Amino acid sequence: MLKRPQTTGNILSSKEVYRGPIFKVLQQTIQTPDGLTVKRDFVEHGAAVVMLAMTADRQQVLVNQEYRVGINGEAIALPAGLINDGETPLVAAKRELAEETGYVATELRPFTVMMASEGFTNERITAVLATIDPQQRTDRHFDHDEFVATSLVPMDDLIEAVRDGEVTSSQTIAAVSYYLAFIAHRDTN
Hints:
The chain is α+β, with helices and mostly antiparallel strands. It is built from three helices and eleven strands. InterPro entries: NUDIX_hydrolase-like_dom_sf, NUDIX_hydrolase_CS, NUDIX_hydrolase_dom.
């Protein structure tokens, strides 16, 4: 079994060069565990959740219209959002799912944690499997600068969209792939 390295670097200096509403950027000088001294830009980012929200007949909630600045366009992805101060990933998942989609999670369970890109950021994303009843809905509450359109799609359609490159969200690809590799066969047996 692979063991995750437990060594850490020694941060020799750290200077904040940008602070925004979601993340800040630090310029750091670090002595790495193998003795090198390196300069790195580091994005300190809050933790997030991504939800694989599923009905009893394996329909998935999919965000199929949300503007994303990184691609300057709309993206297709699973519902996701930031974890607020004081929230656990499960509390955040339930809140974000309701706010973005109007669906109420009746059962939640975390199934993996991933890093957005450990080469420059500490953003941790917890993937949560949520069970929903499509008849149980609540009002959506968007942030002042967001609009999200969602739909229920069969799991096979979501898998096809991932395979065909229509879905490019790394957290969506990772959550769906992890679910298929390690959970789906157990849930259907």
